[in-house]
Design goal:
CATH superfamily of the largest domain in chain A: P-loop containing nucleotide triphosphate hydrolases
Mean pLDDT of chain A: 92
CATH class of the largest domain in chain A: Alpha Beta
Largest sheet of chain A: 6 strands, mixed
Number of strands of chain B: 2
Number of strands of chain A: 10
Oligomer: heterodimer
Number of helices of chain A: 11
Largest interface: A-B, 25 and 18 residues
Order of helices and strands of chain B: HHHHEEHHHHHHH
Strand content of chain A: 25-35%
Number of domains of chain B: 1
CATH architecture of the largest domain in chain A: 3-Layer(aba) Sandwich
Strand order of the largest sheet of chain A: 6-7-8-3-9-10
Low-confidence stretches of chain B: none
Mean pLDDT of chain B: 93
Number of helices of chain B: 11
Shape of chain B: globular
């Protein structure tokens, strides 16, 4: 049974419907990617999964439980964590306070010291800057902090919206390697990316979203070999 | 009379104005709501210690502590009943919601207590320091205000719950995503804001007579102070309170007391024109 399942979700904002029956599933312990061009509804899908946007139709299941109507902070409490697009850090707070805020769920508080040490091990730069205000960090460091804050929540499923956006390729590669390590420790990951090539290269399974619906899905290696995907997204 | 005495007198009251304004500025800073029931809560704080004192003989300073607790709970209730449903609506909705709460409190208060003046008789004598003498009640109120400010800062910067308030202030959606129950944090923040108003009311009642309508005056002063200190900035509120208090102390030495509000609001308009973010406000 998938750990997270989105079934025929329709959702959007005010009068604009963006998702038209999108479905996807995440198998436990695997890196899944959700790819697609700009404006196809990837971020809306994530916001709907978390409950920041209420679905007009369809359901979201987490751990076999229907969570379609559960509020975002309760989902976080259950272990479903989103690292949102644009980082959304607490910019007036210090690096370490941001990490402390990440550990709001009760399950995360119990493992605070362990997780803090682990996060500083993965991102030593954050440890050097622990007392600095988040707003003073560079773009790359802010992205590290956003991921690190997500990890502090001790997630079962971690969803990351546009990890690679605006970052130097070297940095992105480093971040992906860190995520690979976390996967080996049992974390389930969803990477939502415009950078299709990179996302398919590091994930095990992929979904392609187009026009508010999942167009096709399959093992990432097969997708990157798929003629349609190559033509439409990889420019080959 | 010595100008120094006027100044000290005004400064002491300024501390209390400061925490009244802090309540207003806290609510604005956290949730962008201008709380028009602020003055009514200040008046409730006054009547709170008055009733505890006259009916049960509770010492007014213990009364202030009880009134603070009641203010916290009342504020959370007001948030849950009147504010939460319009929290994401345009400002006019929250203005009207808090104004409605204001009218309800004033209406009920007027029917229960009429609008005749009351006072709480606290006799602590006066304190003499060199050439200056001032009523001890004002000194106690000033010290209490400083302690309250310190406690607020400790809470916001050193406790997890306080940090949650700062996180929600900073980015409510992100806080919610991290598992912070933002609606409850907003209710708590509104409760703290009304608690500060109630404390200010209780302290003012120990040295000024008051009616159920008195809160309006202090609400206006709070607005002036918030603009002086920079909206959303608690320390700015305290500094703004001291500035306003000292003006109120010193102006009557030179001209009739009725000129005080005139000058205060001229200052208010000038600052809005020259430095709209307040004297201590962050530049945006």
């Amino acid at each position: 049974m998938p750990i997270l399942e989105v079934r025929d979700v329709e959702s959007g904002y005010a009068d604009v419907q963006i998702l038209w029956g999108a479905s996807l599933f995440l198998e436990e312990g695997r890196i899944t990617s959700l790819v697609g061009g700009n404006g196809v509804g990837k971020t809306t899908l994530l916001r709907t999964v978390m409950g920041l946007v209420k679905p007009q139709a369809g359901k979201v299941f987490f751990n076999g439980q229907d969570v379609s109507k559960v509020s975002a902070h309760k989902k976080a409490e259950m272990g479903l964590i989103l690292v949102p697009e644009g980082r959304q850090l607490f910019v007036q707070m210090s690096v370490e306070e941001n990490l402390e805020m990440g550990a709001a769920p009760a399950r995360a508080k119990a493992r605070y010291d362990y997780n803090l040490e682990r996060v500083y091990e993965i991102f030593p730069r954050l440890k050097e800057r622990r007392d600095q205000k988040a707003s003073t960090l560079s773009g790359g460091e802010q992205q590290m902090l956003a991921v690190a804050r997500g990890l502090m929540a001790d997630p079962i499923v971690l969803m990351i919206d546009e990890l690679s956006l605006g970052l130097a390729p070297v940095l992105v590669l480093g971040l992906f390697q860190s995520l690979q390590k976390l996967k080996d420790e049992g974390l389930t990951l969803l990477l939502v990316e415009q950078n299709v090539q990179m996302a398919l290269a590091v994930s095990d399974y992929g979904f392609v979203l187009a026009h508010g619906k999942v167009d096709l899905h399959g093992p990432s290696r097969e997708l990157s070999g798929d003629e349609h995907v190559r033509e439409a997204y990889l420019g080959i | 009379m010595d100008i120094l005495a006027f100044l000290v007198d005004g400064l002491l009251i300024g501390f209390v104005y400061g925490i009244a304004a802090m309540g207003l500025t806290l609510i604005w800073g956290v949730m962008n709501v201008i709380n028009l029931s602020h003055g009514a809560i200040i008046a409730l704080g006054m009547f709170g210690i008055y009733l505890l004192f006259s009916l049960f003989g509770v010492n007014p300073y213990i009364g202030v502590v009880l009134v603070a607790l009641a203010g916290l709970i009342t504020g959370m209730l007001i948030y849950a009943i009147a504010i939460h449903r319009v929290i994401d609506a345009p400002h006019l909705s929250t203005l009207l919601a808090t104004f409605a709460v204001n009218m309800i409190i004033i209406g009920l208060g007027t029917s229960a207590f009429s609008t005749s003046p009351r006072n709480v008789d606290v006799a602590l004598g006066s304190i003499e320091m060199g050439p200056v003498a001032f009523p001890a009640t004002r000194a106690v109120a000033a010290v209490a205000s400083v302690l309250v400010t310190g406690a607020l800062y400790y809470f916001l910067y050193r406790t997890t719950l306080g940090k949650y308030i700062r996180a929600v202030t900073d980015n409510r959606a992100a806080a919610e995503l991290m598992g912070i129950p933002s609606a409850r944090i907003l209710a708590l923040s509104f409760g703290l804001g009304t608690m500060l108003a109630a404390i200010a009311g209780g302290l003012i009642a120990t040295f000024f007579p008051f009616t159920i309508l008195s809160g309006a005056t202090y609400e206006l002063k709070s607005f002036v102070i918030c603009v002086l200190g920079g909206v959303g900035n608690p320390v700015g509120a305290l500094v703004g309170g001291l500035i306003l208090g000292s003006l109120e102390g010193v102006i009557p030495a030179f001209m009739p007391t009725s000129w005080v509000p005139v000058l205060e609001f001229i200052l208010f308009v000038v600052i809005l024109l020259v430095r709209p973010t307040g004297l201590l406000g962050r530049k945006k």
